């Protein structure tokens, strides 16, 4: 698939959400996909690409792209004790059917949908490394290369997070047979990182990090070695399930986040994904560390995980971003909506997170945009040095009609469904026009063919 239209050197937005707030008549000048100047109150210049209402693209900080293919296939009642753990067994069986071609086709569909919803970069928490029988491909990074190819084909920014997975439970327990496609030792993982660097070499703004899957999946010694290898952001699943917390207590006498904060150099490079089940000291500890809490409200609701203690976290100055995780539903606004609504239900109030006088939609969007950028290793916002990742809202949408400034973001997050995103420019190129990805037909055709084979 060819690239869409060439990059314009300049955009002219009727209004834009800058880091300091809304501004009118905003000229955004770019070079090689990066913003080099932002001027509010500027007269239009010849050749500038005209835009309406523009907000910075949102980072999706946590995705397992291949799981898009099983969305909706695990919603059957009647299984006793159905939970995350029973869902995981179904997921293991599903992924055994997928080869590299399948993984790329599914990732392209997921990444296309992310762009159409307003996400402009993804943190791909990538753990499907090996062949179905567990043998390594001749190219150890073959699967990672397919993820990189899917991001390049669809235009989505990529922060690749190859996952280290060696054990089935705390204390170095032997892995399960169903986990054979994930497994590495430290030397093999170092070789995988080298292969990932090569796979990303054609994408100048791609970022490489790594992800210890969880404290269940690596020993303390392995975690220490991984931190030393880390080329960028470090992401980890943690404290998602009560069973995990109980197992960590039995192993170490400490809760997962408590143990991590005391035994690892957690700082602003880290993203603690889910971190659902916390005590007050852990909430304060994450906030003080500068790490980002990676929240995935749609998936956490789908799996019955529980609710992150969001209000206490933000009161301590904690940073957060959102991700689509299992990709059961890909929708940037929906993640923010459910994040707020979950807290309203738990606290039995309205507008429970944003500071006094600031709209919930604006606060959620900007905080998640800044936290997501930090977790994905890129500059944030419509500012000099940041990528030219622009989302143009469809102000003619029934739910956005007659709105301006913060009311637009409130209405997008809380009142709009499909069609609220008109266009998306990623790294200065347009990939979504009229709400549709420029390669939608080709991507969806390939995805349908893959599902017919995998599900057949």
From TrEMBL:
Any Pfam family hit: Amidohydro_1
Start and end residues of each Formimidoylglutamate deiminase N-terminal domain: 13-48
Keywords from the UniProt entry: Hydrolase, Metal-binding, Zinc
Keyword Hydrolase: yes
Alphabetical list of InterPro entries matching this protein: Amidohydro-rel, HutF, HutF-like_N, Metal-dep_hydrolase_composite, Metal_Hydrolase, Metallo-dep_hydrolases
EC number: 3.5.3.13
UniProt domain Amidohydrolase-related: residue ranges: 53-429
Named cofactor requirement(s): Zn(2+)
GO molecular function, one term: formimidoylglutamate deiminase activity
Record has Metal-binding as a keyword: yes
Top-rank taxon: Bacteria
The protein's name: Formimidoylglutamate deiminase
Organism: Stenotrophomonas mori
